[in-house]
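Technical annex, item 7. During the second reporting period the consortium partners agreed on a shared format for inverse folding records so that results from different sites could be compared directly. Each record opens with the tokenized structure and is followed by the designed sequence. A conforming record, contributed by the partner at site C, is shown below for reference.
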């Protein structure tokens, strides 16, 4: 598993580490780049109730949050491929589709597209602290980001008070009383 840990208080990036969730390591060595150079720092993980019966992640070992959402990470190549695809469609519409050079270009494009799909990865993100977990098995219960679930997770996370989302989000119970 590739861990990209964030601070549970202010969601500041803490660093990255690679670990095996099956071994439930109580702490990992995080590495991150600072302006003065690389920094290493220990992070303690809490595995109680975080893994399901198949040792898949269902909670966050960094902050103890109980909900994760899935997020698809696309390689940086994607916008470039989209522009090329648009150019190819325009050329085809202008009647150049039987030009061997256009056909060759479209063939290259198709290969790039398949490559992008191949390298796109789904990762899990914690609703509370926004720590990311890559290269993990994704359970069916993990859904994409959801506003209601996010509000619930932040409401439970009393510790997060400095994040702008938590500070500006109105408390539903307060809103009903006024
Ligand atoms: Zn978390």
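Designed sequence (site C submission):
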């Amino acid at each position: 598993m590739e861990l990209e840990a964030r601070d549970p208080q202010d969601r500041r990036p803490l660093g990255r580490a690679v670990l095996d969730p099956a071994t439930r390591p109580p702490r990992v060595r995080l590495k991150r780049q600072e302006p003065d150079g690389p920094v290493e720092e220990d992070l303690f993980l809490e595995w109680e109730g975080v893994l399901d019966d198949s040792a898949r992640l269902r909670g966050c070992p960094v902050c103890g949050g109980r909900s994760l959402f899935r997020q698809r990470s696309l390689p940086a190549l994607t916008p470039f491929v989209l522009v090329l695809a648009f150019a190819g469609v325009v050329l085809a519409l202008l009647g150049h589709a039987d030009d061997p050079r256009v056909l060759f270009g479209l063939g290259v494009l198709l290969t790039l597209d398949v490559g992008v799909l191949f390298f796109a990865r789904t990762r899990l993100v914690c609703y509370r602290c926004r720590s990311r977990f890559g290269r993990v098995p994704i359970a069916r219960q993990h859904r994409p980001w959801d506003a209601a679930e996010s509000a619930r997770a932040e409401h439970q996370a009393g510790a997060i008070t400095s994040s702008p989302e938590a500070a500006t989000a109105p408390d539903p119970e307060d809103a009903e009383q006024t």
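The chain has a mean pLDDT of 82. The chain is about 35% helix and 25% strand. All partners now use this format for quarterly exchanges.
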